[in-house]
Design brief:
The complex is a heterodimer of chains A (302) and B (390). Chain A is an alpha/beta fold. Chain A is built from twelve helices and eight strands. In chain A, β1, α3 and β2 form a beta-alpha-beta unit. In chain B, 40% of the residues lie in helices and 18% in strands. The chains are: A alpha/beta (302), B alpha/beta (390).
Chain lengths: 302, 390
């Protein structure tokens, strides 16, 4: 599929419609609509507490044209597993004959942190569900506090001097559950995201997508720069695009010219302090870690 | 009624009595996590599922929080969904208890009462379910395994009519692990009693997509919670109607509370669950001695039948309320309810609060007899702690 056809397909997909109240420049609706358009089956969606939940369902309005549920913050995976269980039971009884796909959306707070156990339990039990992390690298809905998905160096409202710890590698944790498909994607490359969502929906058993979702408000960049920021995350190898199918790693994007982190950092308030001369050592430390992770990924993907 | 001939008694522990009712309900989804002393319920039910005696998708969740969360998901998907727990498990579910009631999902949960940590203790008291009394669940306390069995499908019918979740309590070990003869009614009759489940809304009704659990701000939240208040009020009426229907099958009554030799009594004890049995034995003995003593055993705790309890207690001289839990820094939960119920009376009976049996300490007949002896002196005072070493 070429990008134009895909754009038309996403545009004609009305599962999540306009009128929601995400910030101008928010990546979440683009990510979600791309993923939702990647299956022609009926879909049921579940959402953990977070930006996406509060902006799309302010009562008595809803932006959802598919069945959707929000239960609480840490339990989107468990909630969806119950729905999938109900589906299986009804299908066994012959009360449902159609195929239905199940997708859970959570932020990094909802899946890296408070909902990790629920996600792990659901992955281990093997429900036929897709779990998507729209990863905006902090608790952006509550004002931008650090999560375990926040990158080293990032200023958040609870790490005012910059986070000292490296972010958790959720992909490796998810893959330790022996699932058939997991991938990392980002909002600037919707063709890649769409193809990954298609594979994830068609995978046997659970699947997982970790999608970088730049946050204009708390990363501190202009609303018209979302796509540019996301692309720089990939071009600096800060956020590599890759997938793991049945244990086999595949790199989906290898930048023609790998850019230094400064190019990505200088456009965001959360990182720009790192460009000051007195922070040179810390910046180098972060650059070295990004380089090491990239090298390791190159090796894994052969 | 000729079907009743097929009724048979089984020797069941309370946990298995709950599981037997669940087998007859045959819910589409059961999601559970093991905790002593709830384990006999889910182990027995897992057997039923493995032996295909039920059509249930049995989800072995990785925590009680996830167990109830999955149950909420399944119930919102328009099927019958159940779970079961105790103590710390209920405490871990706490957050989702109000989600289940707020989303108006008729989930039924057998609850085996056990003390809350710390110190950790696996034995019975009522601190777990009392800590959940204000979260919008119907709460039913059972004395015997027979009551556990009957009130489990009773609660399902009630919950589905008023769209509120219900927990059906039994005492940890004293009921959950003790064998009693339980009269089991034929599957066909119970299935007919509970009927087909026809939810108004379902997440799996893909032609009619619904948004469940949206963000509700100050402009609507209050009205939505008021609907829940009304539903709980409605539950009072539906409880009695459900009881009348079930009586046609079992011949038993399903009152808000049981009165035992209460009508002409001068002194009475109020105590729920298995300890009521101990109180009855003592009352029988004291009655033979000519003492006018009786018992009121609360069954329905939420909604609390204040008016009816007031009517039943108004002519007593003195009442002792025996609580198997405390409210630190306040009056014990059951005592507080009874006291509130009596408030409108011009001439109020005297009231004495007792706390007993925390962490599974036994309540002996001798101790109940002493309570009655103290009552018959017509004196009341500060809260007393039965069997406490000082």
């Amino acid at each position: 599929m070429d990008i134009k056809t895909l754009a038309q397909k996403i545009d004609s997909d009305k599962k999540l419609v306009s009128g929601h109240r995400t910030c101008a420049g928010c990546a979440i609706p683009i990510i979600v609509r791309t993923i939702l358009s990647a299956t022609d089956n009926f879909l049921v969606a579940a959402n953990s507490t977070g930006c996406m939940e509060v902006t799309t369902t302010i009562y008595p309005y809803t932006s959802w044209n598919i069945p959707w549920i929000h239960n609480a913050f840490e339990n989107v995976a468990a909630t969806l597993s119950g729905i999938e269980g109900a589906f299986k039971a009804l299908r066994k009884k012959g009360k449902i004959d159609k195929e239905i796909k199940f997708v859970a959306f959570g932020g990094d707070g909802g899946l890296y942190d408070i909902g990790l156990q629920s996600l792990s339990g659901a992955l281990e039990r093997g429900h036929n569900c897709l779990y998507v992390c729209y990863n905006n690298e902090a608790y952006q809905n509550t004002g931008g506090q650090r999560s375990s998905g926040t990158s080293k160096g990032s200023i958040t409202t609870t790490t005012p001097k910059g986070k000292k710890e490296a972010r958790k590698d959720l992909m490796r944790i998810v893959l330790a559950h022996h699932i058939d498909y997991a991938a990392q994607a980002a909002v600037h490359n919707i063709l890649d995201l769409y193809q990954k969502a298609e594979k994830a929906f068609n995978a046997k058993g659970p699947s997982f997508l970790n999608v970088l979702s730049p946050c204009t408000l708390n990363w501190g960049f202009m609303p018209n720069s979302t796509i540019k920021i996301s692309k720089l995350a990939a071009d600096t190898c800060f956020w590599p695009l890759y997938e793991v199918e049945k244990g086999k790693y595949k790199l989906n994007y290898n930048p023609f010219k790998k850019l230094p982190l400064e190019e990505f950092f200088k456009l965001q308030k959360r990182f720009s302090y790192l460009l000051k001369p007195e922070n040179k050592n810390f910046l180098n430390e972060i650059q070295n870690e990004v380089d090491d992770n990239w090298e390791e990924l190159l090796k894994k993907s052969g | 009624m000729k079907n009743l001939n097929k009724n048979k008694y089984q020797a069941l522990i309370g946990g298995h009595a709950a599981a037997e009712a669940m087998r007859q309900i045959n819910p589409e989804v059961v999601a559970a996590y093991p905790i002593t002393p709830q384990t006999p319920i889910i182990e027995k039910f897992a057997e039923f599922a493995a032996d295909k005696k039920v059509d249930t998708e049995f989800i072995c969740a990785e925590s009680e929080h996830s167990a109830l969360s999955a149950t909420v998901g399944a119930s919102a998907a328009g099927v019958r969904a159940m779970t079961a727990t105790s103590s710390q498990g209920l405490a871990l579910m706490n957050e989702i208890l109000s989600v289940a009631s707020g989303l108006r999902l008729p989930i039924v949960m057998p609850m085996v009462n056990r003390a809350l940590s710390a110190p950790i203790n696996i034995h019975c008291d009522h601190s777990d379910s009392m800590s959940a009394r204000d979260l919008g669940w119907i709460q039913i306390f059972c004395e015997t395994a027979q009551e556990v069995y009957e009130y489990t499908f009773f609660a399902l019918k009630l919950a589905e009519k008023v769209l509120l979740p219900a927990m059906v309590m039994q005492d940890g070990f004293s009921t959950s692990h003790n064998v009693e003869p339980v009269k089991i009614y034929p599957d066909k009759i119970i299935k007919k009693f509970i009927g087909q489940y026809k939810p108004k809304y379902s997440l799996l009704d893909i032609k009619k997509p619904i948004t469940v659990g949206p963000l509700v701000l100050p402009d609507y939240y209050f009205e939505i919670k008021y609907q829940e208040i009304e539903a709980m009020e409605e539950a009072r009426k539906v409880y009695l109607e459900t009881g009348k229907e079930l009586k046609k099958i079992t011949g038993n009554n399903y009152p808000y509370f049981e009165k035992y030799k209460l009508d002409d009594a001068e002194a009475a004890i109020v105590v729920s669950s298995s300890s009521a049995g101990t109180a009855k034995a003592v009352i029988d003995k004291l009655r033979k001695e000519g003492k006018k003593v009786g018992l009121l055993k609360p069954i329905l705790f939420r909604p609390f039948p204040q008016k009816e309890i007031r009517e039943s207690l108004k002519n007593l001289k003195i009442i002792a309320v025996l609580d198997r839990s405390v409210s630190f820094g306040g009056e014990a939960p059951l005592f507080s309810e009874i006291k509130n119920s009596l408030y409108p009376l011009d001439k109020k009976p005297l009231l004495q609060s007792y706390v007993f049996g925390l962490g599974g300490r036994d309540l002996f007949e001798q101790e109940v007899e002493e309570v009655f002896e103290e009552l018959l002196k017509n004196k009341t005072g500060q809260v007393k702690y039965i069997g406490l070493r000082k």
